[in-house]
Amino acid sequence: MQQEKLPYTLGLDIGIASVGWCVLGENRIIDLGVRAFDKAETAKEGDPLNLIRRTARLMRRRLRRRAWRLTKLTRLLKRHGLIEDAGFFQPQRPFQGSLWRLRVEGLDRRLDNEEWARVIYHLCKHRGFHWISRAEEKKAEEDKKGEGGKVKQGLAGTAKLMREKGYRSAAEMVLAEFPDAQRNKHGDYGKALSRILLGDELALLFKRQRELGNPHADPALETALLGNGDRKSGLFWAQKPALSGQDLLKMLGKCTFEKGEYRAPKASFTAERHVWLTRLNNLRIVVDGTTRPLNEQERRTVLPLPYKQAGDFTYKQLRAALVKAGLLPESFRFAGLSYPTGAQQAEGKAKEPETEKLVKLPAWQELRKTLKDKGLETEWESMAGAAAGGQPELLDEIARVLSVYKDDEEVAAVLRRLTLPGGERMVEALLDIRFDKFHALSLKALRKIVPHMETGLRYDEACEKAGYHHSQLHEAGKGDQQYLPPLYSGRDKDGRLVFREDLDVPRNPVVLRAINQARKVLNAVVRRHGSPAAVHIEMARDLSRPFDERNKIKKDQDEFRARNERDKAEFAAQFRISGTPKGGDFEKWRLYREQQGKCAYSVEPIDIDRLLEPGYVEVDHALPYSRSFDDSKNNKVLVLAKENRDKGNRTPYEYLDGAGNSPRWQQYVAFVESNKAYRLAKRTRLLRKDFGAKAAEEFRERNLNDTRYVCRFFKNYVERCLKLDADSAAKRCVVASGQLTAFLRARWGLIKVRAANDRHHALDAAVVAACSHGMVKRLADYARRKELEKVREGFVDAETGEIVNPAMFQQLKQHFPEPWPHFREELEARLKIDDPALLRNQMALLGTYPEEVLAALRPLFVSRAPQRRNGGAAHKDTIYGQPDRLKAQGGVTQKVPLTSLTLKDMDKLIDPQRNENLYAAIRARLDAHGGKGEKAFLADNPLRKPDREGNPTGPIVRSVTIVIDKLSGIPVRGGIAKNDSMLRVDVFRHRKDGKYHLVPVYVHHAVAKELPNRAVVAFKDEAEWTLIDGNFDFCFALYPNDLVRVTLKKESHTGYYASCNRSTGAINLWVHDRNQQVGKDGFIEGIGVKTAVAVEKFHVDVLGNIYPAPMETRRGLA
Q1: With contact defined as beta carbons under 8 Å apart, do 22 and 769 qualify?
Q2: Residue 872 in contact with residue 980, Cβ under 8 Å?
Q3: 3-class DSSP state for residue 706?
């Protein structure tokens, strides 16, 4: 239904997995809702969703290339007459004997055709480790604890054995040194062999076989296998080259500012200089209560310091340099670091914040170390001196070559074209280095920007000086498009989406998905309600933070909540309070404890017995709220009421005559600095001296407006592209900070309970929509009238619902009104009431809803983005063996490490009669260690297979095979693998009895390009499921987050489809808003559909409007 077009403000609350939205008219809420979606990262590790897919794809490509190489080898051997058919090396035709021993025998006797073919195939199949460049090998050598380091150590060990003991070939060495097992297992690379070593063995075998008269050891076959000696040509050496040179440049993005230029290597001197200058120029220090950047002398002192480091340059090292130079006192602090309180230090929980890295210049450090180690220190000093003196071109070009090219010969050829000091020695040294990351800007742009940053300008200021406009590439209010355009310009020849070049789109996948969903919401609102008069935005603080940082914040928040609950219980017990304590009283008590029972300004004792007495003590903002808009705990103190009245709208420094260094100010400073409970952030606010008009304005801007990059991007995106209502006077978006919206929520008595359900996102959006520039001005005006000290007493307590000071509440309503009368009641009703008739009746009472609007009014319904994907892992990684004797019963076998065994597993071990002694030894070990395999089979105490007499003389046993009686899944390479992702469930209905049947569809069906035709039968094997034939009608397919209603005989369930239980044939649903009071935290499990009266599917649009789903035909998987 087309809605009446009214002037409105759109509020958006954009989070990691949701977009709350509200359409606010002049005197009523026109519409509101929530769009929810899955985060663009894995829940456990926080990896990008495409990482697993990309890793699996790379592995498939590797295996495919290997298989193709072996196929070509088989054809080559057939052409040379060594084998008769291409199936010679199939697993069904195994070699009876040891191929390693056959390789050794080939050095002393002529091998027949089959033996010679087996030896060649074995060497080419297991051809050892090989580094594509010296730099890659060196990198592995430095990675002592990683897999590359272990491989390198293993290669060094086997090479040493070859040298010291004079073995003729790798096979001879392996059989002599490792007679029990010749392959590496379980992350042990002690038997690792290099491809060069194995190539030498194959060449030696050709030589000996020719000497022994083998006609098939001819030079033509040897050349086809080993090439011309360049270790690149020939089937044995064949390897797909790394992405390099022009092929890499095709994949490389272009500069944000200079659209025709490639992005600069991060390893270039200019790019690293830009990083260091950004950190340096943004740095702020707190000296004697004043927060400021470094002055010119201080900057010049520290600018060269990171270039002298071998590793990280820390805040602590910066402090030492500035103090040693006599430029700063020992007492100064770095703004922005989380310094521990004295109490935390005393408890030993404190971490020294100044040990954190300020900057690191890894490319500079690697180049310097490598060249010095190669005896090229003088040459390095000349290049480094030129770069530091403003001529970085040579170092930049070296970084470009080492970043773009990968192959040693190619790198050497390009380096020789440069005029390098040291000539060939320099080229040879640089072959040990490679780089691989790129900056967002080109060298051309950076060379224009960096000189301005050298003078102390911030990055945004330097961009402007250079003729670029950082994050403001448009004229606000000149958008001419009715809808926000896509973030992509189209697809490339490979089908990949390409970002628009005129938008500097964030590449973080979590941010990208949130922005794209917000775009869809905004466009849907415009389609329904016309162009907005204004757009207001709030973004979650953690939206652009890394996964581990978000986890740390969540952990800290959980700890804070737990501590808060303990404190409330202690407070209630001390003051004999039953029920939930009042928020204002509890806040006074916590500040009382933090301040050791003293007034923050006069340092006079506070009588604990009078703490809750009205008019005795008050909570004050140290930096006045009207000047700072800082309502955080770090800006709050508990003071005697008289002190608060006398202080007025001044800072402590101004009130206590800090400028004259009065005794009261000295006493206050001593109190603040000696308080171990104060963090640096609080101490800085309490002792701040420079809080004039300019400083206060900057502080207000930070607290009122969110200036993070992702917020600026979306703000500019909307301002640049979106055409606002013709009568709109708005030019810019309002990007509200969390502090401001929290203040307004508290002012209007709006209680936000995050854990209850997902509707709170719409509440936030409504507050954001109501938060205009005019409202901010009214708040400031009201605060300046010196009445803000009492403002909080007029708030509705968010937990108890009580109003501390009813008179102040009424006064606030007069001076700082809600957007319109009954705004709070209207918003809460629109958020909470699910009955359409009741909602319409409630809204009719307000008198602001026209009849036609009331008739169309609907309760809030959370929209969820469906997951209609057709790809993923076809099966789980583990492939279970299935011997012929277990096929009839559907049984499988699985190899399990001894360390994971328990006593319960002993009855599942395969062939107990054949392995009686071994299984007895395993049981004895488990019995001796409490049935715990991880303790029974430690690496330094391995289990050896017992002989017939029970003596442990055999090889080391690390794993055993167990039998699983029944397992359904996918046949893979002669075994069975479990299904991985269930993409959807297809719903069928029997024509005669009307019963519903569910057919699960997995990824492997897409691979097989054949849809399944078996419907789940509870507790039956898949072979016994119901066959779907002409007696069934297809109803529809259910994907995750499709809305479905299941009507049973006595009840009905409506929710978003979550999953299907293939054991029971029941489905699981999420209630639309994830209401914690419904089901299990919003999850309804085990809904049987077979005997349902009706199963209906619905379509939910972006705004939460519900429509019957259209008729469907059963479709295959693309």
Answers
A1: yes
A2: yes
A3: coil
The residues, any chain, with a CB within 8 Å of residue 257's CB and separated by 6 or more, are: 441, 442, 445, 463, 468
Burial letters 842-863, b for 16+ CB under 10 A, else e: bbeebebbeeebeeebebbbbb
Q: Which residue has the tokens 């789980």?
A: 876
The secondary structure of residue 477, as a DSSP letter, is: T
Give the span between the Cα atoms of 106 and 123, in whole angstroms: 13
Distance separating alpha carbons of residues 446 and 417, to the nearest angstrom: 24
Dist. CA 937–CA 597, nearest whole Å: 59
Helix (H, G, I), strand (E, B) or coil at 298: helix
Give me the helices (H) in 143-268, please.
Answer: 147-165, 170-177, 195-211, 219-226, 245-251
Burial letters 757-774, b for 16+ CB under 10 A, else e: bbbbbbbbbbbbbbbbee
φ, ψ for residue 1029 (rounded to 5)? -130, -155
Q: Are 92 and 86 in contact (CB under 8 A)?
A: no
Q: Which residues are CB-contacts of 165 (< 8 A; sequence separation ≥ 6)?
A: 173, 176
Q: How far apart are CA 587 and CA 608, in angstroms?
A: 14
Catalytic residue numbers read 13, 621
In contact, 1081 and 1055? CB cutoff 8 Å: no
| Joined tokens for residue 461 | 């200021």
Is there a contact between 277 and 463 (Cβ–Cβ < 8 Å)? Answer: no
Beta-strand runs (E) in 947-1093: 956-957, 959-964, 970-972, 975-979, 982-990, 996-1002, 1014-1015, 1026-1027, 1032-1038, 1043-1047, 1052-1061, 1066-1070, 1083-1088
CA atoms within 13 A on the CB side of 335: 18
Do 47 and 553 form a contact (C-beta atoms < 8 A)? no
Nearest to 118 by CA among 67, 74, 180, 64: 74
Measure the CA–CA gap between 718 and 14, rounded to whole angstroms: 14
Least trusted range by pLDDT, from 92-106, 941-955, 1012-1026, 1047-1061: 941-955
Rounded CA-CA distance 588/1097 in Å is: 54
Of 319-333, 621-635, 757-771, the poorest mean pLDDT is in 621-635
Beta carbons of 1098 and 1106 less than 8 angstroms apart: yes
Crossing angle for the helix pair 362-373 and 393-404, nearest 10 degrees?
90
* The pLDDT value given to residue 549: 65
Nearest-Å Rg of the Cα atoms of the chain is: 36
- For the chain, the average pLDDT equals 86
CB 470, CB 488: distance < 8 Å: no
Structure tokens of 894? Answer: 């699985």
Q: How far apart are CA 405 and CA 243, in angstroms?
A: 8
Phi, psi (rounded to 5 degrees) for 1037: -105, 140
Q: Indicate the SS3 state at residue 172.
A: helix
Residue among 411, 395, 399, 408 nearest 436 (CA):
399
HSE-CB for 931 with a 13 A CA cutoff: 5
In what helix (H) or strand (E) does residue 627 lie, and over which residues does it extend?
helix 625-628
Determine which of 75-89, 874-888, 931-945 has the lowest per-residue pLDDT on average: 874-888
Give the 3-state DSSP-derived string for 515-540, with helices as H, strands as E and coil as C.
HHHHHHHHHHHHHHHCCCCEEEEEEC
In the numeric block, which tokens belong to residue 317?
A: 């090292």
* SS3 labels along 21-35: EEEECCCCEEEEEEE
Residue type, 612: L
DSSP helix/strand/coil, 484: coil
The confidence score (pLDDT) of residue 975 equals 83
Instruction: Identify the three-state secondary structure at position 571.
Output: helix
DSSP label at residue 725: P
